[in-house]
Amino acid sequence: MARQIKVFRTHLGFYDLIVAAPSKKAALEAWGASPHLFTQGFAAETTEPKLVEAALKAPGVVLKRQFGSTGEFLESVDSLRVPKASAEEAAARRAREREQESEKKAAAAVAQAEQRAEQRAAEQRQRDALKEAKAAEARDKKDAVQREREDKAAAAAEAAQEELRAELRSLTQKHRDQLRDIERRETALAKERRELEQEFEQRSGTLRRKLDRAS
């Protein structure tokens, strides 16, 4: 959908200028003027019927008339002339000046309001960023505490397992020592038994031989 054409008015040098444009930016480009012209109160939208009618006949074309005059706005002005002063023109000029002053004050008030709004928004963004930073710091601390607890629990579990493994190693070694001790004693008993058997066989054999000779 095409943008609505508006009529903007300003005063530059010796001329009053008007232009029909879709935006303030377009009007500034057509005038070749400072981008702060509107915010400084030196330009504004106009709804004056004659000016609107003249500008809408040639959208985008800058129309001008000598500053202080009441003539028609034209695409070009041949020469400057000293306007005739009259009570009516003076009153009209004062009215325009009051209107421009009012528009300037309104534009300044709007600019100040926008500046205050932007400042409040910036302050709110700063508060939000600080709040998020504090929340992130709290989360980091909570995560650190949780990791410390988990590390301690893992270390305790590892220590308990190591203690059980040490106890198992000790029990296994004790069992082996006991088995070796039993084996040594069994070996000693077997040796003692063989010696007893041998001694018995020798003595009994000697006694039998003596009995045989005696008989």
In short:
This protein has 215 residues and is an alpha+beta fold.
Give short descriptive properties of this protein.
215 residues; alpha+beta; 4-stranded antiparallel sheet; 4 strands
Protein architecture, described:
Helices cover 67% and strands 10% of the residues. It has a domain at 1-81. Strand 1 (6-12) and strand 2 form a beta hairpin. The model has no long low-confidence stretch (mean pLDDT 86). With 215 residues, it is α+β, with helices and mostly antiparallel strands. The termini are far apart. A four-stranded antiparallel beta sheet has the order 3-1-2-4.
Main beta-sheet annotation: 4 strands, antiparallel
Rough outline? rod-shaped
Assembly category: single chain
Low-pLDDT windows of residues: none
User: From the alpha-carbon coordinates, what is the Rg to the nearest angstrom?
Assistant: 57 Å
Number of helices: 3
Query: What is the string of SSEs from the N terminus onward?
Result: EEHEHEH
Strand content: 5-15%
- Look at the structure and give the mean pLDDT: 86
Widest sheet: strand ordering:
3-1-2-4
Q: End-to-end span in angstroms?
A: 154 Å
Helicity range: 55-70%
Secondary structure: elements and pairs:
Layout: E1 6-12, E2 15-21, H1 24-31, E3 43-45, H2 49-56, E4 63-66, H3 87-214
Antiparallel strand pairs: 1-2, 1-3, 2-4
